[in-house]
Amino acid sequence: VRSPVPDYLADVLHDCADGPAGRNTDYLPELAQADPERFALSLCTVNGAVHGAGDVQQEFSIQSISKPFVYAMALADRGLEAVLDKIDVEPSGEAFNEISLEEGSARPLNPMINAGALTAHTLVGEPGMTAQERTQRILTGLSAFAGRNLAVDQVLYESEKGKGHRNLAIAHMLRSHDIITEEAPPVVYGYHRQCSVLVTSADLAVMAATLANGGLQPVTGEQVVPQPVIRQVLSVMATCGMYDAAGDWLSTVGIPAKSGISGGIIGALPGQIGIGVFSPPLDEHGTSVRGVRVCERLSDDLSLHLMEVSAPARAVMRSTHATEGPERDRVRVYELQGTIQFAGAEGVVHAIVENPPDTEYVSLDLSRVDSVNGPARRLLGEMLRRLEEDGHRVSVVDPESVFDPGSVLGG
Ligand code: GLU
Questions:
Q1: CA-to-CA distance for 99 and 113, rounded, in angstroms?
Q2: What is the pLDDT of residues 319-335, one digit of tens each?
Q3: Ligand 1 centroid, distance to 386 Cα (angstroms)
Q4: What is the tally of helices (H) and strands (E) in the chain?
Q5: Maximum Cα–Cα distance for the chain, whole Å?
Q6: pLDDT in tens, 241-255
Q7: Is there an atom of ligand 1 within 6 Å of 63 CB?
Q8: Is the predicted pLDDT of residue 409 greater than 50, yes or no?
Q9: Cα 195 to middle of ligand 1, angstroms
């Protein structure tokens, strides 16, 4: 049998082809001349399954979609504090190439506008790296996200170099405020190289899935950046990823995303999937028109909106019963199930408090529990400690070691 997923993706492409048209960017002649009919959609799950439809082999330049990944590298290499010191995380509501800095601190407003992206570019690697070493580190890093060796489109790079006046102006402004501490031109050229890296929609889906998967590349199994970095990157994508239409995007599509002027869009839904779309004609914000339609459609069809309320955690307590046999009246068993987070653990605590056990022995049975997160573990652990304090003998049945009772019961 064949998976229904690629057929579904082909249907989505077909349905989203029609509608308001849009226009290729005229920023660079190579991008202006790109075939406007090219259309590709790829999806990668956090399990590493990649599906696609349309022109999935078509390469195009990554452009601004490189920004969240380079921001991730800067965070991994320099730490959150050092990066926040130079780049804020406030949505600007302005165009991507706006020449503006935060009043007072002179920091760029966020890493998704060019001022912030140029700054993030300089924060990758060890301090003191040459511009060339840094560009190499960025190419290697982007390749690790994609799981294959990516290359720079030299022709496009040269073309942008001749057109980079605005980015040079931004870089000079950053230099004058000591936000970047190097000469402006090499920084801008390195950034242009970063934007000229060639990818396919499948690469974008896998790269986005790495963000969705806490930095663990789901196909190669490589931890590309540490997990805490990802929360920061996805937050910034959610609030600042879609140029000046970030609020509209978050409410309608609800997937942390980033678009680029060559017509690509990535979407990364934490814990589920990465999406890569490509179609060159852009809307008035500079985002792929068909790409937006595809993302709206996927979000609706597959219930991918971040704010979609997930099933409530009420089913955590599976049963509470006495044991069988001669011990019957002496043991009360609380049998839990599923994934336990704070609200679910509170439900268990609440049930115990409302109806306290009258037996000598109390047992928490976690045989059917998939995972217990930190806050839930601490809350349940404290509850068990209090039961012990009240004179009960407490035990935990935990064959899969989801709970690590040793640590919560104090050994
Ligand atoms: N290289 C382009 C620039 O910096 C990228 C713009 C984009 O994709 O939004 O102007």
A1: 10
A2: 777 776 666 678 999 99
A3: 58
A4: 16, 11
A5: 86
A6: 887 788 889 999 999
A7: yes
A8: no
A9: 7
